[in-house]
Amino acid sequence: MSNFREFDRQAVFLLPPSVDEWLPQRHLARFVVEVIDGLDLTSMEKSYRGSGSASYHPSMLLGLLIYGYATGVFSGRKLERASHDSVAFRFIAAHSHPNHDTIANFRRRFLPEIEALFVQVLILPREIGMLKLGTVALDGTKVHANASRHSALSWDHANKLEEQLKAEVAELIALAEAADQADVPDGMSVPQELARREDRLARLAAAKAAIAARAAERLAREQAEHAARMQAREEKEKATGRKPGGKPPAPPQPGPLPDNQINLTDADSRIMPVAGGGFEQAYNAQAAVAAGSMLVVSHDVVQAANDKNQIVPMLNRLAKLPDALGVPDTLLADSGYFSAANVEACAAANIQPMIAAAREYHHPSWQQRFAQAPPAPDQPTPLDAMHHRLATPEGKKLYGLRKQTPEPVFGIIKSVMGFRQFSMRGLQQAKGEWSLVTMAWNLKRMFTLAHA
């Protein structure tokens, strides 16, 4: 006699099955649906004309996207497949199965609206006391673009390719004009080969124009920096009465440099150093995370590999948050964000800056850990005041929150949620997708805190 439980894959239900009964009551999918049902989707709903075949409701498609990003399902094809295979996705889609084109078009079409919904989602944890916008930690992480660094084209290589293609065009024209075309290989069409090279020359010209435009932007930026350095040098000479040592800073070089590049797949992305060494085609994704709740309160995607110029834009974004969310009073950031101008910008925004002036050692000695705080300076500048705060035990303890606030968020987004590469191309699309990622993280985090 066997001791196995009986099973029958051909068994039929007496009553129609309900997917609501199959999904546990405490499940992330239910939470996502409840939150989305409370959002104002009027702008999305009004954009549908109401003619033709009936459309899927935006709340359902948005739910599929957010739950997909929260659980590591990003592509439209995988989301379509999950609406058949997964109980959670079937619950969100209510037994319907939107195809991958519908999902992809919805995401592409409503990225601006989705970015605006990010703030609406933050209102909920604020109302229930889950979010306190006091101490905020800012950090950035490199996220791979939807492009390979091997698709990058440098100014020097573009010029060499252009010369080669022009020479081949001249050869083909001569071959086409020859009276005897016996030298033309079998199966070769001279007009087709000419058209192919002319098309490549046109794309090369567009790529070179983009590189030249970037070079002009770089020149303007470097000229301003050079003028500031020269002015500082002159002021130092007047103050000391002595000529500063060393050579004066060299003026910036105009025009594209030989190694200036553009990516032919995603022209907005940039070659950036990544964790673990090496370089990849990437974007720099920024996030301001509230200490305690670890909820992302503001975000951005930039093309600069360096974080030094990201403080002011983030302060502007934080200032635009609704009053209902509160006001941040302290900003934590690592040494990559440090500059005197950034410290002064935080002070001007009535936010206490806690930005490391230099990279800290991971294992300081006990003398450094328990050293007495220096006396407070008289009439300190914002920079002097920040240096003193960082040297106090209270300041060290507060700055210690930086590592345990944004870095775990990035780690979970990349390693648990599996988001390591943008699906969409272009800076604006990357900004919108990062908004979707951080919104999914916030919902996932809110669900965890609510059921802790």
Measured between the Cα atoms of the first and last residue, the distance is 46 Å
CATH topology of the largest domain: Nucleotidyltransferase, domain 5
CATH architecture descriptor of the largest domain:
2-Layer Sandwich
Give the helix tally. Answer: 17
Structural class: alpha/beta
Give the proportion of residues in helices: 40-55%
Q: Categorize the overall geometry.
A: flat
Text of the CATH class of the largest domain: Alpha Beta
How many discrete structural domains?
3
Which stretches are low in confidence, meaning pLDDT under 50 for 5 or more residues running?
none
Output the radius of gyration: 29 Å
Mean pLDDT metric: 88
The helix-strand sequence is HHHHHHHHEEHHEEEEHEHEHHHHH
Strand-residue proportion: 5-15%
User: From the structure provided, what is the oligomeric state, counting identical versus distinct chains?
Assistant: single chain
Q: What characterizes the major β-sheet?
A: 6 strands, mixed
Number of E strands? 8
